[in-house]
Specification:
There is one protein chain. With about 700 residues, the chain is α+β, with helices and mostly antiparallel strands. Helix content is about 50%, strand content about 15%. The chain has 23 helices and 20 strands. The strands form four sheets. Strands 10, 11, 12, 13, 14, 15, 16, 19 and 20 form a nine-stranded mixed beta sheet that branches. Strands 1, 2, 3, 6, 7, 8 and 9 form a seven-stranded mixed beta sheet that branches. Helix 20 packs antiparallel against helix 21. The two termini are about 30 Å apart. About 50% of the residues are buried. Bound molecules: adenosine-5'-diphosphate and magnesium ion. Adenosine-5'-diphosphate binds near residues 273 and 444. Adenosine-5'-diphosphate binds near residues 192, 259, 274 and 322.
Length: about 700
Amino acid sequence: MSVPELFASNVFNAQVMQERLPKETYKSLKKTIDEGKPLDMSVANVVANAMKDWAVEKGATHFTHWFQPMTGITAEKHDSFISPTKDGKVIMEFSGKELVVGEPDASSFPSGGVRATFEARGYTAWDPTSYAFVKDGTLYIPTAFFSYSGEVLDKKTPLLKSMEALNTQALRILRLFGNTTAKRVNATVGAEQEYFLIDRKMYDARRDLVFTGRTLFGAKPPKGQELEDHYFGAIKTRVSAYMKDLDEELWKLGILAKTKHNEVAPAQHELAPIFTSTNVASDQNQLIMETMKKVAVRHGLYCLLHEKPFAGINGSGKHNNWSMSTDTGMNLLDPGSTPAENGQFMLFLVAVIKAVNDYQDLLRLSVASAGNDHRLGANEAPPAIVSVFVGEELEAVIDSLEKSIPYKGKGKKTMKLGVDTLPELPKDTTDRNRTSPFAFTGNKFEFRMVGSSFSLAGPNIVINAAVADVLRQFADELEGAKDFNAALHDLVVRTIKENKRIIFNGDGYSEDWAKEAEKRGLLNLKNSAEALPHFADKKNIELFERMKVFTEREVVTRTEIMLENYTKVLTIEGLTMLDMVKKDILPAVGEYTDVLCKKIADVKAVLPGSEVGADEKLARKLLSLSGSLSGKAEQLDELLIEAKACSEGKEAAEFFAAKVVPVMQEMRACADEMEQNTAKKYWPFPTYGDILFSV
Ligand code: ADP
Ligand code: MG
């Protein structure tokens, strides 16, 4: 099958709707999709029936309301289309009501305490802005998930609300620039997804990978990523077959899988789709992650989406490329070719810069998790400081605006100053800074702190809400201005002056930066326990309430859920470590030490006077390491018991960060040294070398 034929062949998209729905039905559905108009039940019945017929032709027997609870992954419950007839047979049926609302039992999803006050009932409501699709014999209907009392229980609803807020405020700005044609401004996202691919047998042999998604032990192999020979390297046959299969599966689901390549670390790869509207990008990213795992199994592989599956080599992120675009196709972060366009561009640009400065804490915590703590602010990773990269040229423009001096482009003639004072901007800022957490890359921003396993919803809710709120302030100011151009210039320059501290174009990984950032008063929230509680800071609750994204109660409950998730993950990791230490590592090293001792005794008996110093030294070393490892295991055991006494939330999270994590690190260091000193055949599981070079 050709790719254009294959593409979206399992998606109930606009084209299929148009083909299969009566004209009037299609029109009213389209209104719902494009303008958020409520859907009439009579229309829903017709749509449901057409959807069912189409899905059955594609081999579907079931349907599911597909939703995104706060676990960060998706949830589904399948119901078949069957409906009994009088003669003891069945027909396939699907009603408008079944399409529009579902009622899954909500009691076992995290609700951060909302559950206590409402009955177990939860509802799912169709999100017609994200197309339904068929996968594995089931019709999937993207839905939002909320409680009986109307509290939002998912990640999708607030994302949609944040997009709405951004739309409202961005349109106000566009109107000020005389734009009367744009009807909608959409936040767009293209997320580059990094992942590791390892042999399935290696995965099965490591309980840490099975239970926690990352290796809790593992000495550095002789070869890591130091030769930089993997990045963009030739793709191995087995990986290439996997990627081809993956692309095809994604294309069928209407996902614009575009770019694939090897990443920096051995066994690490990346897939990037073409950007789309944020909620669709978020839904599709969930499908990408799921499909990556599923296809891997077919190839005897395992796909690791954890942020740091292996210590000592690069972790995996999900670079969130973000911009705003109108329904008429204008990218609001694209520098224009005329000074008038640039005035508008500069305003949106400084709005994002201000949003990042004002809400550094929210951006930081939107990507905080036990897994991502290994990538951000940890020993071998970039610091957890949020800053914005704008590139040399834009920085020069910003500089000249701030100082009211003419801008001289690099090697170019002095730039023309339009709309009184705003210069004509370089069309393409191609210089890249891979160390910046929030980088302007020519016509979009790239938020690089997002972890590979994250839902795109969280970080984008924050970006959208924060930018929307700044645009609101801008619109308030400019709408009242007597001289628009003068007010615009004044606002841009003032915003630059007030938010300059967040701009940093240097090496974000250097130690100097951490010091400099501190001088500038930027936040450095080193781990999740430090970052997450700020979600419920007064200024943040106010932001979300103003933008109608979350209620105070929703913010508070979500903070609890995130903190709880952090401590749960660490508890599972701690228990898995204990299990592996007690059942595998200590017995294995004990066995090897016994062998060494026996050998020493034998040599001494048979060949008295022979040199056995090296073996003796090794045996002593292993004995002493075993001693300290069991000591630390005991310590961890006790800490995990102690942790249960902490009150939930912040206190428990802080206990884990301050007490549990360091002991886990010490245990690991000890076990890794044991691995390096133990003969291979005694070591109880595959090593880093085995795993990373297994495919
Ligand atoms: P790189 O690895 O060089 O940063 P990639 O090509 O891997 O770049 O990924 C860039 C991503 O940015 C793609 O997903 C692309 O679709 C996305 N992108 C491009 N323009 C926009 C935009 N206006 N809004 C959101 N995302 C965008
Ligand atoms: Mg890329």
